[in-house]
Amino acid sequence: MRRLVAGETSLNVFSLLYLVGFFGLSQVSSIKVITPGEVHASKGDTVRLKCTFTSTSPPNSKMSVHWSYKPRTGGSAVSFFQFSSRAFPPTSGQFSGRIRWEGRPARGDASITLINATLNDNGTYTCDVSNPPDVYGSPNSHIVLTVTPKVPTIRFSDVAILFAFILLPSGLITFFLIGRMFCPKKQSNQSEAYRSPIEVTEGEDYGSHPQPRNTCFTACYDSYLTDSEDEYDYGKKRPPREEDYVESQC
User: Fold this and answer.
1) In the predicted model, what is the mean pLDDT of residues 181-209?
2) Is 190 exposed, middle or buried (0-12, 13-18, 19+ CB in 10 A)?
C-alpha cells in the first residue's frame, strides 16, 4: 500500500516538473517577429521592408537574420540576404546591389531597404530571426510587396516656372501690341470728332469748322485766327488796314 502511494506521488511530481519546465521554458526562451502584412510602392521607389522582433534574451553573437523572397508568379522561396554579426547583401541575382541593411539588432530591428523597386519585385518577403537560446514563439513573419507603375504627374514648381517665364511675358507682350494697335487710332478719331470750346472762335458754331489737314494752310489759318482775335480787341480803336490783311496770308 505504501509502495502504491509512493509511486503515485512520484508520478505527480514528475508530471508537475514537466509542465513547469515546458511552459516555463516556452515563456522564458521565446522570440516574436513582427512585420507589416502588405507594402505598396511605385516603380523606382526606395522601399523599406520593416521587421522588428522581441526576445527574452539579449541579442548575442549567435543571433542571425535571414530574408527570403517568393515571386508572386509562384515558385520556391529564395534566400537573398543574411545578417550574422555583419550584413551579407546579395552580390548576384535579382537583388544584387539593391539591398541595404537598416537593422539595429540591439533595438530589436532587422529591417532592410529595397532600392529602385521594379515590377519583378512583386511577391512575398519573409523575415526570419534566430537568437539562441530563444527557440520558441514566432521566429518569422511575411510581407506582401506590391509594386505598380508610376503615374506621371506635373509638379507645382514646374507649372509655376512655365507660367512665370513663358506664359506671363507672352501675355504682357500681346496685350501691349494690341494696345498699340487700337489706342492711337481711337485717339485720332476722338481728336477729329471733338473740339474744345476754347478752340471755337467768335462767330463759329461748335464743331462747324473741321481742322484743316494741309500743313501750310493750317499755319495760315492759325495766323488768320490770331489776327481776328486782335481785331476783336482793338477793332473799334483802329480799322483794319489792307496791308495788315495781306501780311496775314501765306
Assistant:
1) 53
2) exposed
